[in-house]
Amino acid sequence: MVINNLALSISQIEEEYPDNPIEFFRGKRLCLFKACLEKYFPGVRFGIENLLEALDLEVSTCQNQSCCSGTFFQRNLITRAQFAALNERNLNEINNQADILLVSCNGCYNSLLRGRDFLKTPEVRKKTQEILDDLKQEMGGEKYEGQYEILENPDIRIMHDLDFIYLIRKAVLNTLKFDLKGLKVATHYGCHYLNLDRDRDTETYLKDKNKLEELIKLFGGQPVGYSERDSCCGWGASQVVLHPEDAFKITYKKLRSCENVGACFILMPCPTCLYTLSKPEFRDQITEIFDDKLDIATIHLNELIAILRGCEEDQCVNLRKKSSRIHWIYQTITESD
């Protein structure tokens, strides 16, 4: 079995479409992966879907997919074969629906690529297929040919939302109604984005990660550096559950470092990191432990683009409930000078 790299080649697109990379995506079916933690931040999916529709690209939300199971695997609750089977089933469903999969979450993106990596081990591959065979029997057979088979050569290609938005940044800029008004913005990439090498060649992997900073400047903001830029958000899979005070220390140091440099808010490409850095209960516990109340706002890249595009507040901010987390950002960007 040949395990091909499912990550879309950004450099190849740039080479073939140097002036207008968005043309590569026209006529292709794009699908949005449903990350579990998006349910806390509905603007994450709304932001990218709204942008794609404005750019006249064909987009749908992935059907019949489950959780990527990354958190379960990291907490040693499932085996490599179970993890691979979950992601292989997801990929099979998505491969039947779309040409390109866009993923808003660092962990989901990593899991979808990692599950395929595990299939390179014969023992894991054998057990993975056995799990899929059992699932096929439990579900009463296939709805389409090969539904519960390991994909030998899938057509689907996977791309992180940040990489997609950066690649077509000129087209994105043309859809914006507002700018960042010179606001100081700190960035947080997240461990899985900074350290993932499954989708990159060595040269690309070793390069500085600065796409968020470049987008901030393009959108009229001022990126600010801070000492904890490349550190973890504090989630650490099981660590925030098993050792909350140690995990919160990491979160606290990052938030405090951002406030120390005068950042107005923190921009990130991952809802899991956003959850950790934003959750009110976590902020309250951090205040209690460190006797320091931190108020810095946080936002996902997709949410920010929705605001800059001029979406209504009840679409890109409230959705389910009023969010003090990004209400200030929305008000500041959209208020008249």
What CATH calls the topology of the largest domain is Rossmann fold
Please identify, by name, the CATH architecture of the largest domain. Answer: 3-Layer(aba) Sandwich
**What is the name of the CATH class of the largest domain?**
Alpha Beta
**Which ranges are low-confidence, i.e. pLDDT below 50, for 5 or more consecutive residues?**
none
**How many domains, in number, for the residues?**
2
Total helices: the number is 18
How would you write the strand order of the largest sheet? 2-1-3-4
Structure write-up:
- The chain has 337 residues and is of the alpha/beta class.
- The protein has two domains: 10-159, Glutathione S-transferase Yfyf (Class Pi), Chain A, domain 2 (Up-down Bundle), CATH 1.20.1050; 177-334, Rossmann fold (3-Layer(aba) Sandwich).
- Helix content is 49%, strand content 9%.
- The protein contains 18 helices and eight strands.
- It has helices spanning 10-16, 43-54, 70-74, 80-95, 106-118, 122-138, 161-167, 169-173, 191-195, 202-206, 211-218, 239-242, 244-260, 271-278, 280-290, 301-308, 313-318, 324-334, and strands spanning 29-32, 58-61, 100-103, 157-160, 184-187, 222-223, 265-268, 297-300.
- The protein has a four-stranded parallel β-sheet.
- α2 links the parallel β1 and β2.
- α2 (43-54) crosses α16 and α4 (80-95) packs across α5.
